[in-house]
Amino acid sequence: VDSKGRNVAQSIPDTKIRDEGAKEQAKNGNNNSDADDSFSMFSGRAFASEKDAEELATLKEKMEELQLKLREKEELLKSAENLRDQMNAASAKLDEMKHQVSEKDGSLKYTQQQLSDAKIKLADKQAALEKIHWELMTSNKKVEKLQEELDSVQTDISSFTLLLEGLAKTDTAKYSDDYDTKPYVFNHAPDIDNMDEVECQKIEEARKAYIAAVVVCKEKRDEESIAAAANTRLQLQSLLFKSKNANL
């Protein structure tokens, strides 16, 4: 309070007070500004750090995803390699099987060819066997026919022998009745007797030859023996016919 009784504080001009307040405020403002700058810087750094952390987390997440994909691709690659190896093994096995099938086809074709050849040979042998069987049957029939003819010839020989014996007895009785006991020798009689003996000998030889030929034919049963028997039969028949005609 001054001497005039005024309050000193009140006597201080408002301007001064305002100036002081402004200064103080400015000071405080400067202080606040520095604090704000520090806070802003810190906040910026914190924000940058947070952003970096987020980006780092994002990058880390992406890296993990890439690593996961890489592992998946590696697994797929291994699977593909395994599948390729399996395919190669299967292809090699298939080639081996094809080779085996080809060999078996070749062996089968060779066996079929051998079977076909064997069938042809069997058919040829069957035909030859049937031919031999037919020839055997024919030969048997020819032998049976020759046997029948032989029996017939033997019957003819027996009949002819009986006829000769009958003629001989008749001639002997006739000569006895005509000439009694007076012997008369005809010059031609010995010739006739000799001729009959020769004919009989020829007939007997022909008969034996025919019988022997028939026996050989029965044993061999071939065309040659059958032809030989037929020839001897014809010779025998020819002699018999000549003898019969000569005695008629």
Give the key terms:
single chain, mainly alpha, 4 helices, disordered N terminus, Putative TMV-MP30 binding protein 2C, microtubule binding, coiled coil, MBP2C
General description of the model:
About 5% of the residues are buried. The protein has a domain of about 120 residues. It contains 4 helices and no strands. The N and C termini lie far apart (about 225 Å). The radius of gyration is 76 Å and the shape is rod-shaped. Helices cover about 90% and strands about 0% of the residues. The N terminus is likely disordered. α3 runs antiparallel to α4. The protein has about 250 residues and is mainly alpha-helical.
Q: Care to give the gist of this entry?
A:
This protein has 248 residues and is mainly alpha-helical. Helices cover 92% and strands 0% of the residues.
Task: Report low-confidence residues grouped into runs of 5 or more.
Answer: 1-12, 170-195
What is the end-to-end distance?
225 Å
Q: What best-fitting shape do the alpha-carbon axes yield?
A: rod-shaped
> What fraction of the residues are assigned to beta strands by DSSP?
under 5%
Compressed to H and E, one letter per element, the order equals HHHH
**Tally of extended strands?**
0
Mean pLDDT: 72
Structural class: mainly alpha
Give the proportion of residues in helices.
over 70%
- Count of DSSP helices? 4
The major beta sheet can be summarized as: none
Rg, Cα atoms, Å = 76 Å
